[in-house]
Model the fold of this input.
Amino acid sequence: MIDSKKRASPIRAQVAQALQAVAAGQSLDAAIAAVHGEERELAFARALLYQTLRHHYSADALLRKLCQRKPRPNISALLRAALTELRFLATPTHAVVDECVRAAHQLDRDAAGFVNAALRRFLREREALEAGLADDEEARLEHPRWLIEAFRRDWPADVEALCAAGNRAGPMWLRVDARSGTREAYQAELSALRIASTAPPHPAHALLLNDAVAVERLPGFAQGRVSVQDAAAQQVVEVMGVSAGQRVLDACAAPGGKTAALAECVPGLDLVVIEREAARLPRLRQTLQRCRVVADVIHADAADTATWWDTKPFDHILIDAPCTGTGVIRRHPDIKHLRRPEDVATLVAQQARLLDALWPLLARGGRLTYATCSVLAAENQAQIAAFAQRTPSARPLPLALPGFRAAGDGWQQLSGQNDQDGFFYACLLRSD
Done:
């Protein structure tokens, strides 16, 4: 709850500016990094930004009803955040109105009266205004129309559930390092600290926290005894089925969670990890160092094999492919605003380029695992079907992943199922 004492408070003005930055194509993480204030204000700003992006479409629909003229972009962003705060956060209504009027003075002094009138009208007519949202599918499902239609095309029986999952915050999953003790022993340590968790049957090293906590509260986090990773991503260990001593390539490695999971569960791997984006390399190296993983880290375009491959074949290749991220919207609500319909075709082409370029690097009898955090068929089962058709030596292998459903020659989990992210896996054997 925010203190309503009269004081200069720039935080809501900064929230509006951060929303504008996302609208202009900046990631939410980068927009949050530009917000400044006391710790309490930053926590509030983060919560409000996440909620506003989750509920953008209903707030936009409300604004169209509240405003006879379209506000300037910065005032529109401020009002969307204010409506979200009134609807979904516990701030007293008078504090929201007062603080947003002050923020309007900072953004556009002439708009302060307009902001005040719009918010007070919403409070007077809230019930009728919110009831009217049921007739607007974008507002009701809180997703852009193109994405709703994509969900309907690929998963017609699951559209409502997919959107609902994308509008909720994802829970906090942990991966316990198998080298540091059992999952049960670590769970007991958490319990002693009054951090409640559950241990699902799968994956073997996963724990689901009842409530999210700061990583600093997790015993041994800095020493790599535990990591934060969704259970769906942890399934990569079971899917790949690598053995000690094998040469393994992680072709799109940052931030390094899957590489670390493999190294923790299978000793003695010869790991080569590649990351194309220089900005992501520090995070990758930090993850590997914290988790005590030895790997050959290469900054390169994995598909441009002539620039980095030493001609020694790999026993297993992991392509955690660049994708739309439609399976992790609940963790990254900016995806709904940053992605465009035309991005799907661009990403499908990138994925196909990686598959075609890296397949020849496999040893005969080797395996390639393809993964995405997408729920769109074009990036998943259709991508694998097309690759298998043009690659006679690629033989899809059957999988049996708990909680996943068969999707062509792969396996798909939809967002929110089993409290996990949306994820796709396929495994291909090279049988020349």
